[in-house]
Recover the amino acids of this structure.
């Protein structure tokens, strides 16, 4: 089952650009890269698909042919006569250093050929084999699990999708969108899980999908660990990361282990390159450009909320609790907001940062910082309809910002308020959690209303 993914808009823009270069699509295993490219391929007159996990496809690149003759050879072997617009898709390209290097020559010698490559564990495998894409001869796009917008489109909630795209969201749509966002949080954004839910309307069926996916992620370790010891450490990190998600972590003895800081740090960074998790480091100065402090403890963010629910065994809470704040100490809401912010940018991995002030008697931490038009806005996630804003107030009092954003379980509203200590006036923008990916649109609305 294929879905209309947002990456298709990016791919169409790439195709139309006069400055187009061969494209490398990056993303974690099973987020839908191959399916999306095959859907995009329907818009071409001719499509050539190579999967370099297969020896016969790898062999095509084991020659000294120049790019033009290589393409002719590929067409000959596939019995294809390309006519009109032609898309060449090289999947699992990390299995062939020769194919990686050919990306440069496709750009230089065959500018009219549309070339896309992709691969699971791409960066890890390339590091292991000491290969890299030619600098300045390719461009990149990134795919993540399905966003809430994509989820609504996939399950056929087109009316709700239309309301989500309206800024501000009409009040009549709030309860419907809140319920669907809650469903999205539990089903998650992995395409196979979404497809299974759409087909069965049964959350227990989704659990079977995630059990298989989680097992596959653990099995992948043997592909990129250098020895048995490293395999055990990385597998431990995969298994225990869900319990640490949402926390500020220390590498030493991570997941109640006896492993040392360097061992855990190397494993975490390996899994980050595989895009299975993200280390979100804090900034301590509330101004651009952001400079994350790598000496401070990072927050751990997992790939997908559905995978997280399965790994923690909390999916059944969907039927028991009314608010996300009652589930996993509210960390599930912060996870899915971070997931939405990541998926909003396919041009780079734009890890959401957070702000912290660490003092002996007065610590403060703002969940996310959001940058727009050279300004920085603090964002607090309150998964229920209530909750204090102490850290947000601390940020506002220590910066020149006069706008704070609360993502919460209630409806859209704007309040004029003052911080409790310095009595600094500010505007509080209350946004439903399901609007996380549209922070920029709501700030633009405020700016246009102020004119």
């Amino acid at each position: 089952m294929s879905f209309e993914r947002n990456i298709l808009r990016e791919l169409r823009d790439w195709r139309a650009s006069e400055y187009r270069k061969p494209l490398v699509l990056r993303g974690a295993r099973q987020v839908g890269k191959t399916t999306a490219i095959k859907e995009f391929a329907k818009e071409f007159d001719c499509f050539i698909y190579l999967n370099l996990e297969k020896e016969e496809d790898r062999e095509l690149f084991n020659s000294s042919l120049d790019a033009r003759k290589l393409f002719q050879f590929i067409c000959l072997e596939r019995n294809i006569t390309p006519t009109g617009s032609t898309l060449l898709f090289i999947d699992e390209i990390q299995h062939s250093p020769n194919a990686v290097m050919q990306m440069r020559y496709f750009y230089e010698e065959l500018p009219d050929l549309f070339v896309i490559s992709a691969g699971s564990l791409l960066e890890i495998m390339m590091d292991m084999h000491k290969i890299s894409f030619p600098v300045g001869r390719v461009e990149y796009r990134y795919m993540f699990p399905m966003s809430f917008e994509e989820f609504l489109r996939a399950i056929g909630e087109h009316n709700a999708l239309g309301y989500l795209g309206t800024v501000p969201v009409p009040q009549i749509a709030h309860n419907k969108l809140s319920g669907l966002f809650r469903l999205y949080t539990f089903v998650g954004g992995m395409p196979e899980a979404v497809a299974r839910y759409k087909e069965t309307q049964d959350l227990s069926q989704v659990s079977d999908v995630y059990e298989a996916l989680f097992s596959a992620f653990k099995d992948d370790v043997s592909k990129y660990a250098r020895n048995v010891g490293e395999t055990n450490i990385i597998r431990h990190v995969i298994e225990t990361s869900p319990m640490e998600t949402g926390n500020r972590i220390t590498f030493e003895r991570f997941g109640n282990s006896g492993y040392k800081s360097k061992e855990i740090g190397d494993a975490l960074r390996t899994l980050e390159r595989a895009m299975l998790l993200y280390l979100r480091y804090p900034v301590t100065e509330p101004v651009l450009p952001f400079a994350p402090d790598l000496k401070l403890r990072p927050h751990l963010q997992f790939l997908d909320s559905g995978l997280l629910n399965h790994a923690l065994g909390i999916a059944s809470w969907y039927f028991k609790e009314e608010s996300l704040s009652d589930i996993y100490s509210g960390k599930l809401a912060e996870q899915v907001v971070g997931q939405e912010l990541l998926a909003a940018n396919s041009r780079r991995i734009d890890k959401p940062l957070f702000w912290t002030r660490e003092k002996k008697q007065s610590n403060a931490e703002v969940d996310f910082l959001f940058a727009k038009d050279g300004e920085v806005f603090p964002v607090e996630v309150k998964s229920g309809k209530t909750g204090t804003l102490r850290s947000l107030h601390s940020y506002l009092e220590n910066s020149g910002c006069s706008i704070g954003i609360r993502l919460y379980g209630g409806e859209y509203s704007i309040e004029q308020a003052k911080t409790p200590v310095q009595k600094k006036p500010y505007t509080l923008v209350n946004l439903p959690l399901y609007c996380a990916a549209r922070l920029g649109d709501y700030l633009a609305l405020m700016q246009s209303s102020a004119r």
Remarks:
- DSSP finds 18 helices and 15 strands in the chain.
- The mean pLDDT is 91.
